[in-house]
Design brief:
The protein has helices at 109-115, 270-273, 319-372, and strands spanning 2-5, 20-22, 38-41, 51-54, 58-67, 83-92, 120-126, 138-140, 144-152, 159-169, 180-183, 199-200, 209-215, 226-237, 249-252, 257-260, 288-290, 306-317. With 373 residues, the protein is of the alpha+beta class. The strands form five sheets. Strands 8, 10, 11, 14, 17 and 18 form a six-stranded mixed sheet that branches. The longest helix is centred in the C-terminal third of the chain and has 54 residues, at 319-372.
């Protein structure tokens, strides 16, 4: 709808509706009464030769209003100027460009966002300052492993990531034995209940990232010096409040209580009972293994809102074992030193013997000269 004031030039001189057209195809206005103050055009966006341009954030339809005065009756004169007035209509690309009711033909968010394979889950080992990925998988017992879970959503609406369940095993198989549960009951970091200081980092860097630390350990009576950590990751809409099924809770030993990364404190009370609602995850569901190489699972795509991701191996070194190695290495260093001293003594004795031999020869050669005299 285009509405034009009959006092087009603001001079008090009214124009005639018959002198106005719209667009390159010269569409005529609606029939109006002479007593009305405006002239109306009602045309479609693609009518009258209108042009359309697509920008980054809008649909732009362009046309023009033409005032082409013609003589009245038998006169051969006109009292107003010919004028061409550009008209531009802008519609946001993310909005509805029609005033009419629409019937959606797309599928709901939970279907389309994942069927397009735009969600990528990752689990990485990080340096202690969280600024970069850890360059070595080696740890000492007593160290803390810094793990960072992420979800890459592309251009989709904001999502909030949760670590639903984590288990450590001596092999990449999450069903292997022995195993140690790190996170359980939909986000309770149960490893922190023991003598460990394992906990989620508060606050999180963003809704799509969750960081936590795990005190390094090894399995008793197991000769393998490595572990793999498999975590079940899932997402919800960022605007959705955390609840018992979607949470990140750590145990505080000073207060002897659970506390959440975000949300009300009572969502963590079920961690004490070990019952936080209907299980949504099985340890036997398919998962993606993320080896230490750069071709980790963070480069793979998943078609669901949850996935199992494995990081590892984490190779641990026992500090007492390292001390024994150093003690065993000490005699070897001492032997090298003693060997060097021995060689020096031998060389010194050899030089002394050579000097003595030369001295005796010189004395023997000087005796005949004295006898002749």
């Amino acid at each position: 709808m285009v509405m034009v004031s009959k006092d087009l030039f603001g001079t008090g001189k009214l124009i005639r509706a018959a002198d106005l057209t719209l667009g390159p195809e010269a569409c005529e206005p609606l029939v109006s009464m002479d007593t009305e103050d405006v002239v109306r055009f009602e045309v479609g966006l693609h009518e009258c030769g209108n042009s359309m341009q697509v920008t980054d954030d809008a649909l732009v339809y362009s046309t023009f209003l033409l005032h082409d005065p013609r003589p009245v009756g038998n006169l051969s004169i006109v009292r107003t100027n010919r004028a061409e007035i550009p008209i531009e209509c802008r519609y946001p690309r993310q909005g509805n460009v029609s005033s009419q009711a629409i019937l959606p033909t797309w599928l709901p968010f939970r279907t389309t966002v994942f069927s397009e394979e735009k969600l990528t889950f990752s689990l990485r080992l990080m340096e202690e300052n969280w600024n970069a990925e850890k360059t070595s998988p080696t740890f000492h017992l007593g160290d803390a492993a810094h793990l960072q879970a992420e979800i890459h959503t592309g251009s989709h609406v904001p999502l909030r990531l949760f670590v639903d369940h984590c288990v450590a095993t001596p092999t990449p198989d999450q069903n292997a034995s022995p195993y140690h549960t790190i996170v359980d009951f939909h986000g309770c970091l149960v490893d922190g209940l023991t003598d460990a200081s394992s906990a989620f980092k508060v606050p999180r860097p963003g809704p799509d990232t969750l960081q936590f630390t795990v005190d390094v350990f090894h399995f008793a009576n197991d000769s393998r010096n490595m572990i793999y950590i498999t975590c079940h990751l899932k997402v919800t809409l960022a605007e959705q409040d955390p609840d018992e099924l979607n949470k990140a809770c750590s145990f505080s030993k000073p207060s002897n209580s659970w506390f959440p990364v975000e949300g009300p404190a009572d969502i963590c009370q079920c961690c004490n009972k070990g019952d936080c609602g209907t299980p949504s995850h099985s340890r036997r569901q398919p998962h993606v293994v993320s080896q230490w190489s750069r071709s980790a699972s963070r480069n793979r795509r998943h078609v669901t809102e949850e996935a199992d991701v494995t990081v590892g191996p984490l190779i641990f070194l026992d500090r007492s074992g390292d001390h024994e190695v150093e003690q065993w290495a000490l005699p070897s260093d001492t032997s090298v030193v003693l060997l060097g001293v021995g060689l020096a003594v031998v060389v010194s004795l050899t030089l002394t013997a050579v000097i003595l031999v030369l001295t005796r020869r010189c004395r023997t050669a000087s005796h005949p000269v004295s006898a002749s005299e």
